[in-house]
Amino acid sequence: MGLPIEFKEGHILKINHSLYGLKQSPHNFFEFLKKMLLQCGFVQSQHDPCLFISNKVICLIYVDDCLFFVPNSKDIQVMMDKMRAEEVAFNIKNDAAGFL
Predict the structure, then answer these.
(1) What's the pLDDT score for residue 62?
(2) Pairing of the two strands 43-44 and 65-69
(3) Which helix (H) or strand (E) segment is 39 a member of?
(4) What is the pLDDT of residues 31-77, one digit of tens each?
(5) At 33, phi and psi to the nearest 5?
(6) pLDDT average, residue stretch 4-27
(7) What contacts 18, CB < 8 A, 6 or more positions away?
(8) C-alpha distance from residue 8 to each of 4, 12, 15, 55, 86 (Å)
(9) Which of 9, 53, 55, 64 is the 20 to 30 Å CA partner of 30?
(10) What SS3 string covers 40-72?
C-alpha cells in the first residue's frame, strides 16, 4: 500500500477506520457487522444483542466470530452473497468446534 498522492512531507494523515488492537475496535467491528446484517434482512434479538435472526438464517456473534445456522446450505450461500455485495468478507469453516 502506498501513500496517497495528496500526501505532503511534514503533514499528518487521519485514519478513518479503527485499527486492530485499539480499545474501540471490537465495538466498531460489532456496529459495522450489525449494520450489514440489518441491511441483509436480519433482526437483532431484544434478549441477546449478539443474536440476529432472518427468515432462514440465525447468526450468533462472539467478539469477531460469527456462527450461522441454516436448515439448507443453499440459504447460507444466498446470505453470504448479500454480505459480499456489501464488501464483507468471511473465512468459512464448516466446523463449529473452534468457535469458542
Answers:
(1) 85
(2) unpaired
(3) helix 25-39
(4) 988 998 998 889 999 999 999 999 989 999 987 788 888 888 888 88
(5) -65, -40
(6) 67
(7) 24, 25, 28, 29
(8) 9, 9, 16, 51, 33
(9) 55
(10) CCCEECCCCCCEEECCCCEEEEECCEEEEECCC
